Amino acid sequence: MRGIGLACAIAALAANGSVLAQSPAGNTSSGLRVATTICGNCHQVTPTMPPSAVRSPSFADIASRPTTTALSLKQFLRSNHSRMPRFILSRADTDDVVAYILSIKPR
Ligand code: HEC
Q1: Structure pTM?
Q2: In which band, very low, low, confident or very high, does the pLDDT at 24 lie, cut at 50, 70 and 90?
């Protein structure tokens, strides 16, 4: 857990100093923060995080699917799911989480 805190701190610092972390639709470093706090209970958000006990895909798996796009993620997060609770995420948080997931998509 320590490593994640550090990674977040570094990400936050990087975000303050530059516009590089900024994608048009959302901010990847605050997306990582939202993801580790809200989604991290059930998903393995970063490869260094221990795999979740819940049977859910890791964010790396989700990101690497060819079908994963900003639109598909936003639709998923806006709708109801049997095994995943429905979140009340602000629009900005949604954009940031989506930007983070897309940022780890293999190119
Ligand atoms: C309480 C546990 C839980 C939390 C918290 C959670 N998820 Fe999930 N999520 C799941 C489960 C379980 C699945 C598998 C889908 C299913 O079977 O319904 C899933 C599936 C997904 C999928 C779809 C993957 C696919 O198969 O296409 C996405 C995208 C996703 N989650 C994103 C998120 C994001 C972003 C957050 C944080 C805002 C989040 N999840 C928080 C449990 C959770």
Answers
A1: 0.77
A2: low
